[in-house]
What does this fold into?
Amino acid sequence: MIASGGDRLAAIDALGDALAGFRVAGVASNAGWLAAALATPAFRAGAPTTRFVEAHPALAAAEPVADPDEIALAAAALAAGLDAPATDDRSPWGARDAFRVNLPPIQTQVLRIASDRQVVEVCRDGAAWRVRGRFGERALRFAPTSDAYRLEAWIDGVRRRVDWARLGDRLFLWRGAARVELMIEDPRRGAARATATEGELVARLPGTVVAVSVAVGERVEAGATLLVVEAMKMEHAVRAPYAGVVRTVHFAVGARVTEGAVLVDLEPAVAPDAPNTAGTSNAADSPNAADPSRAPGG
It folds into this structure.
């Protein structure tokens, strides 16, 4: 990318504008770093040296992450099907309106930003959307746009605009030259999960939490009741599939949960070291351990 201008600052500004509109997805890009470097006083003053990168470590450390409004906007766009091409399928099987009998049309979108897992509930409310997650609740209304790679919406009365692109399970958002990547967890594309997956226990049916039997930090044994969810006029006990320590309880008594919502994070207990039952011989007694030259292939 090359830019020119009447003087140094004009050329820097032109290059910064070009980087702010540069879009590449699927491969690594340093466009965000370059834009940040152009904005530093040292570069604008014409005083960069061969030690510029070393002298500005914060530029490389400032990895952009999605803010709550961007997470809400991405989840609502996925729920609305804005990432999918237009279709003439008008059958109930082609609908993406999350229709449920006598229940609000809530969809659950799961997004990962690095190691942070965000479970976001999205519900259509007429022409608007209500989006709820750990960040709280947002009221969102999309603004019309002819660009399939641009999202524009009013979020709690404030207009936001981001460029976006989806490649499989990867979702990219741009904030100027800075690019944010999110991973989409699509339950239709993975194997069926057990009740507990990676320490997370999830609701199998939508319902209401009627009892919470554990607290954060509590150690529980396998089979212990963690909480109870009332669904379809029946109470379902959620039990620990293994011994562990409760790290997070995501819902309190009285809270409504949707199908697939993470209820409890349970960290497996560390098993004690198993005794040596292989007899008296061990690695230390092996002649190969005392003399590496006698090891096979030595």
